[in-house]
Write a structure and sequence with these properties.
It is built from 13 helices and 36 strands. The protein is an alpha+beta fold.
Length: 667
């Protein structure tokens, strides 16, 4: 690695940190600072000797604007351009370059297109265009205000591709438009399109008071070869109809329509890295590596390189779900990016976009080697603008926030209120884990977060099934009555999280599936099925919002893997044909959902325990959850009909001999 003899970083509007190679430096009289070749006076604040260089802190007598020509020399022989340092994180810089108008990106019409980019440190910016026939052109952007640059091109640019060439911090870098809405495969370059020519979504959806959320990966939904999807692993696979198991049970979209859920929550569908969009089968990835926030993922499209295909296909999917009275929720990732050094705003404004500790090192609470600083105005704006794009252009019905506990609560509150103005019933919820002790963040212990923003309820998850992170730990459904009081409190709306904010779940895409955890503990598949039915039904009936993981109801397994985010289709797929084995168990879940829809979403009328059996009273229904092997006798009063599950009638009582769920309906 080549040694740098002289470097200068702007840490405040008129304060520099200068690094000089040890062998070359004697005193600060060797240094000179120039602004447009004119000498500028300075004085030394600090000098420290390090291992192989000197560190100097200098102060000049005027504000340094890095869009101008600022240089430092050593003995007038060695020259270095002054580049940005900590200045980008000073309040004065943040305030000065806070641009909030709604015109970033490309504004297209048939006669001209306007390009606008936020790049407060840039000295020069070139727009590089390429026509559909391969003709290349270059246009210079002009500086406008508050860090923005602009150029207008007077001709029809539909289907042209574009990228910017930007001179920042002493070098030219190619950078993609963070506000682009169309892209070639793998984000190599971005398209200019006419939004009016995209698929027209005709149907909307009103979110009900009691959502039933079903979490699905676009890829996993149709990846099983035996299911014979025409569009495997693609957006269009989500809406294929007429598919059946060998025994004739509907699968795919037909199954989802019959299950009783109200919303499909899709794992990330905005453009991500980790999968080659032109060779989808080579690698697998869930998609928590965001790359282009306004653009749908290309690997799920039938033609990733076509400027309109990926847009039209996901819009058609959303419209079809709305037409069938189903909502669509996006899983969004704003706590980190795929590679921090490839993030457009890190190229345009190095050091601005991410969180740093007291030592000037990037934090890594996300586990992805970077944490976005969502409190920065331009990062907050990017987040809200991209959400607005998905809400208005794609008509999604809600957003699930990955590691929401790393996003600041001001940003979460502002984005919720902004989205609510457009869609009053918008659903906003996320992972509210308290990962960092920073009290400005949107974790579940922060009372300053808007009451309409929901949380995944780990208290419910871990008391029902046992600790997610201790495989052999057992919860209530395994007969561990140590959790009896906790579950009773949850069912009576007295848990740690307000029921209006509670997303109740026992499994999701993360960690082991319930089936895999249970099989590790018990190794008796029939018994595991009974425990899982209990867990599924408790999830449905508990006050709050029920959340079901795709395939959970048919005992989905991921080969006991705890984190399958980049493993194979074989591990992550759901085998639809297993519906033939478990149709009766699915019927129990459907029945539970049907009953729950008649309930107040946040209250159960009454609960009581009969030894180790929990009884819920819901309207005309009595629902029994049995947690051990002792026989339970239910005396016959008036007329009781078994709504689901098997029973034995002996004289004037029903004898329940099995561990499971029993739903009685009074007539």
């Amino acid at each position: 690695m080549k040694k740098i003899k002289l470097q200068a970083f702007l840490d405040d509007v008129n304060v520099l940190t200068v690094l000089v190679e040890h062998s070359l430096y004697k005193n600060d009289q060797q240094l000179s600072i120039y602004h447009h070749k004119k000498h500028v006076n300075f004085y030394k604040i600090l000098e420290e000797k390090k291992d192989d260089f000197y560190k100097l802190v200098l102060k000049v007598n005027q504000k340094i604007n890095l869009r101008d020509d600022w240089k430092i020399t050593l003995d007038e022989a060695i020259e270095s351009e002054i580049i940005s340092g900590k200045v980008v994180r000073t309040q004065s810089f943040i305030d000065e370059y806070n641009y909030q108008d709604d015109d970033l990106g490309v504004s297209y019409n048939e006669k001209y297109s306007t390009f606008k980019l936020w790049a407060p440190l840039a000295k020069k910016i070139h727009l590089l265009l390429e026509s559909p026939s391969g003709h290349k052109e270059r246009y210079d952007l002009s500086y406008e205000k508050q860090g923005t640059w602009k150029v207008k091109v007077d001709k029809d640019l539909e289907k042209y591709t574009y990228i910017y060439n930007v001179y920042v911090n002493g070098k030219w870098r190619k950078v993609k438009d963070p506000y682009a809405i169309a892209s070639k495969a793998n984000g190599d370059i971005q398209y200019i399109i006419d939004s009016k020519k995209t698929y027209n979504i005709k149907h909307t959806y009103h979110n009900p008071d009691t959502p039933f959320i079903y979490e699905v990966s676009v890829r996993d939904f149709s990846s099983n070869k035996e299911s014979n999807f025409k569009n495997p692993k693609k957006y269009l696979g989500l809406i294929e109809t007429g598919l059946k198991t060998p025994n004739g049970h509907p699968i795919g979209f037909d199954y989802v329509k019959e299950l009783g859920i109200t919303h499909l929550q899709m794992l990330p569908i905005f453009d991500f890295t980790g999968v080659d969009e032109l060779n989808q089968n080579e690698k697998y990835n869930w998609g928590y590596n965001p790359s282009q926030y306004f653009i749908p993922e290309g690997s799920y499209a039938s033609h990733p390189n076509h400027p309109y295909t990926r847009i039209n296909e996901i819009k058609k999917v959303i419209d079809t779900y709305h037409q069938n009275d189903l909502g669509m929720i996006m899983d969004v990732v704003y706590n980190h990016v795929d590679h921090h050094d490839k993030f457009p705003y890190e190229i345009l404004t190095p050091g601005y976009s991410f969180r740093y500790d007291e030592f000037g090192m990037m934090t890594d609470f996300s586990g992805c080697k970077n944490d976005l600083d969502t409190s920065r105005p331009m990062i907050k704006k990017l987040i809200i603008d991209s959400l607005l794009h998905w809400l208005k252009f794609y008509k999604v019905d809600g957003f699930r926030f990955d590691l929401m506990g790393l996003i600041d609560y001001n940003t979460m509150n502002e984005l919720y209120l902004t989205l609510k103005k457009i869609k009053p019933d918008i659903l906003v919820y996320g992972e509210g884990w308290k990962i960092d002790n920073n009290e400005t963040l949107a974790h579940m212990d922060n009372s300053k977060l808007d009451d309409h923003i929901g949380f995944f309820n780990d208290e419910f998850r871990d008391s029902v099934k046992g600790s997610t992170f201790i495989t052999k730990d057992t919860g209530l459904v395994f007969g561990n009555l140590d959790y009896k009081n906790v579950v009773d409190h949850l069912l009576n709306s007295k848990g740690k999280i307000k029921v209006e904010k509670s997303i109740n779940f026992v499994e999701c895409h993360d960690n082991q599936t319930f089936f895999d955890k249970a099989m590790t503990i018990i190794k008796d598949e029939n018994l595991v099925h009974k425990y899982q039915i209990v867990a599924n039904c408790l999830t449905v009936f508990a006050p709050g919002t029920p959340f079901i993981h795709f395939g959970q109801e048919i005992y989905r397994s991921k080969s006991f893997e705890h984190n399958s985010y980049n493993l194979s289709d074989e591990i992550n797929q759901v085998k639809w044909h297993t519906l033939d084995l478990y149709k009766d168990d699915v019927f129990i879940l459907k029945s539970a959902i049907e009953i729950r829809k008649k309930m107040n979403p946040y209250h159960i009328r009454k609960t009581k325990w009969i030894k180790s059996t929990l009884v819920l009273f819901v309207g005309q229904f009595e629902i029994y959850f049995k947690f051990d092997d002792d026989n339970l006798t239910i005396k016959k009063e008036k007329y009781l009909y078994i709504h689901s599950s098997k029973y034995n009638k002996i004289k004037e009582a029903y004898i329940l001999k099995d561990i499971g769920v029993y739903i009685f309906e009074r007539k």
